[in-house]
Write a structure and sequence with these properties.
The complex is a heterodimer of chains A (about 110) and B (about 120). Chain A is built from no helices and 12 strands. The termini of chain A are far apart. In chain A, strands 2, 5, 6, 10, 11 and 12 form a 6-stranded mixed sheet that branches. With about 110 residues, chain A is mainly β. In chain B, strand 5 (about 40-50) and strand 6 (about 55) form a beta hairpin. In chain B, the strands form 2 sheets. In chain B, strands 2, 4, 5, 6, 9, 10 and 11 form a 7-stranded mixed sheet that branches. The chains are: A mainly beta (about 110), B mainly beta (about 120).
């Protein structure tokens, strides 16, 4: 079956530091890949997506590239802010479009 | 505003007392799903529905039931809750075939505690 593995947290950074959260996946077919963000006490919000190999998703300064050769979709941001503190989930959508498979989540804490 | 609405947000109940968590979406989406979130495990799918009267099991369906009598509603039913169902639950929806491009829209979550 499909699976997603992402680095465990928490990740603690100072403001303006560079962020990388690793995500690798195992899947049959050609899944779409997503990063979702969960702020404290809230639901999941779609951060960015990529639907095919070599696509780069980007939003709010975050980026991730769909790498089929390494089955990876690492999340990066060049300069994090305190407001980026949240839990980040990597996920893949199966070919039928009816199931998202999530990684375990990575908590990011950004200190002033 | 396009949204997925879950109720209640918080619920504490006792073992064995039947409960229903409601989910409603106003986007005319065909696909709806329920997930539970547990620390370190991410979110796992409980049940999904691809249209009215079409439902199927996800990865962790034991102890849950669902129904899809109307397109907008997808309630989650726990007929005899147990403490291992204490979790944070999310409902999500997507247009048919649109999940690949738009992802799923999630509700705000229901935190359930079974004592």
């Amino acid at each position: 079956g499909n699976s997603v593995t992402q680095m465990e947290g928490p990740v603690t950074l100072s403001e303006e530091a560079f962020l990388t959260i690793n995500c690798t996946y195992t899947a049959t077919g050609y899944p779409s890949l997503f990063w979702y963000v969960q702020y404290p006490g809230e639901g999941l919000q779609l951060l960015l997506k990529a639907t095919k190999a070599d696509d780069k998703g980007s939003n709010k300064g975050f980026e991730a590239t769909y790498r089929k050769e390494t089955t990876s979709f690492h999340l990066e941001k060049g300069s994090v802010q305190v407001s980026d503190s949240a839990v980040y989930f990597c996920a893949l959508l199966n070919n039928a479009g009816n199931m998202l498979t999530f990684g375990g989540g990575t908590r990011l804490m950004v200190k002033p | 505003e396009a949204q997925v609405t879950q109720n209640p947000r918080y619920l504490i109940t006792v073992t064995g007392k039947k409960l229903t968590v409601t989910c409603s979406q106003n986007m005319n989406h065909e696909y709806m799903s329920w997930y539970r979130q547990d620390p370190g495990l991410g979110l796992r799918q409980i049940y999904y529905s691809m249209n009215v009267e079409v439902t199927d099991k996800g990865d962790v369906p034991e102890g849950y039931k669902v129904s899809r009598k109307e397109k907008r509603n997808f309630p989650l039913i726990l007929e005899s809750p147990s403490p291992n169902q204490t979790s944070l639950y999310f409902c999500a929806s997507s247009p048919a075939g649109g999940g690949r491009n738009y992802g799923y829209t999630f509700g705000s979550g229901t935190r359930l505690t079974v004592v």
